[in-house]
Every structure is written in structure tokens, then in C-alpha cells.
TrEMBL record:
InterPro entries in UniProt: DUF306_Meta_HslJ (IPR005184), HslJ-like_sf (IPR038670), Hsp_HslJ-like (IPR053147)
Domain DUF306, residue spans: 32-136
Transmembrane segments: none
Domain of life: Bacteria
PROSITE patterns reported in the protein's UniProt record: PROKAR_LIPOPROTEIN
Gene3D superfamilies, per database record: 2.40.128.270
Protein name per Swiss-Prot or TrEMBL: META domain-containing protein
Pfam family, one: META
Natural source organism: Vibrio zhugei
Lineage of source species: Bacteria, Pseudomonadati, Pseudomonadota, Gammaproteobacteria, Vibrionales
Amino acid sequence: MKLSSISTITAIASAVIIAGCASHKATPITAKDLQAHRWVLTTVDKKAVKTDPTSTQPFIQFDDTMMASGNASCNDFFGKAKLDKNRLLLDKLALTMKLCSDDIMKQEQMIHRSLSSWTDLSLAKETLTIKTPKHTLVYQADNTTEAKQ
């Protein structure tokens, strides 16, 4: 009988711990979190971002109205950012139309497609991760350059 009581208490304690872990949600990312930095893209799908002499290091930044602007490797872009429960969408994305090498253009198109649909966001210290069903983009805060507001 005593063993049953200990087993029951252990089972209840385990259930409470598991339920607590399962219900733990990420801290919501706010507009202020995104506006605080210029975010430089460092990896795409765990591979270093491609650059060449004709390209720019991809980045994104957000102003105080959540207008996003940046560069996706070759072309500048801007659009209205929508943030909802750690999900991001750049609505009505507009971009310049310069031509770069094939590898850079493919990377840029993937970035545009990713940012133009709802993505999952996570923020850990100064690393912003944007995930789509197909790609993971990892941005690092660039504290050497102030975000243009």
C-alpha cells in the first residue's frame, strides 16, 4: 500500500512537471525588440550567407512605425512589417531591380519569398531567427551600425 502511495505521488509530480514544461511558451517578441538593431543575415539553412564583389551583406531593420527596410544580397527592399505572436510578415514588399550573379539572385529570391509570407520568429540575446517551412534565416544584431530610423 505504501509503495502505491509513493508511485501515485511520483506520477502526479511527473505529470505536473511535464504539463508545466509543455505550457511554457517563448517570451513574445515585441516591435521594440526588432527596432533596437540593424539585423545582419549570417546564415541560411546553417550555411554562411553567399557574397561576392557585386553583392551586399543582407540585412533588415525596422523603424518605429514597423516599416522594414534592408538589402537581400543585391537589391534594397522595404515593406510594412506585421508582428503577431512571434510571427512576422513583410506586407507589400517593394524592391529595387538590380541584376547580380545567379547564386546571389537565387539567395535574394529565397530571402524575399521567406519575408513575404508569415514566418516564425525567435530571439535569443542578439540573434534573430526567422523560420519558414523550407528555410531558416539567422540574423545577428549589428551594434556597430545604428539602425536608420
